[in-house]
Specification:
mainly alpha; Rna Polymerase Sigma Factor, Chain: A; globular
Length: about 160
């Protein structure tokens, strides 16, 4: 992979990978580390991608693996993190702000399927392939996430 291809891929997919990492870790600093590791792995990739969808799915899979590795690491298990000050996105409607806050409170397993299904537009079958879980598991997590969101938003 030459420099121009690498820069094109990074520019194209940086936001998606960052949003996934933030939704998984709930911490922008940790998400930055995961994004960096994801794109370092892209640098060491030898084979070419078959198409743009293949490169996006590969990056999402690597990002998910990095998130899982991050949560199972010795450092994460032994050190208490200080809550990072996070720059909140600007919302014009209170309804959107409440939804954003409710999604942030979801467990990582639920928030990642919500993100991939609603924001990235993947089907449950595609999400199952990316996360290496069964399609029924994806549907179950979506149902649970929707219920948690409904309960959270009904309180607001």
């Amino acid at each position: 992979m030459d420099r121009a291809d690498y820069e094109r891929i990074v520019r194209k997919h940086m936001d998606t990978i960052y949003r996934m990492a933030v939704s998984y870790t709930q911490n922008p600093a940790d998400a930055d580390d995961i994004v960096q590791q994801t794109f370092v792995k892209l640098l060491s990739r030898r084979e070419a991608f078959t198409d743009e969808e293949h490169e996006k799915r590969w990056l999402i899979r690597v990002c998910v693996n990095e998130c899982n590795s991050f949560f199972s690491s010795f450092w994460r298990k032994r050190v208490d993190s200080i809550d990072a000050i996070e720059k909140e996105p600007e919302f014009t409607l209170q309804e959107n702000r409440d939804l954003y806050e409710a999604i942030k409170k979801l467990p990582p397993k639920c928030s990642i399927v919500i993100y991939l299904f609603y924001y990235e537009g993947y089907s449950t079958k595609e999400i199952a392939g990316m996360l290496c879980i069964r399609e029924a598991t994806v549907r179950t997590r979506l149902v649970r996430a929707r219920k948690l969101l409904r309960d959270e938003l009904s309180e607001v």
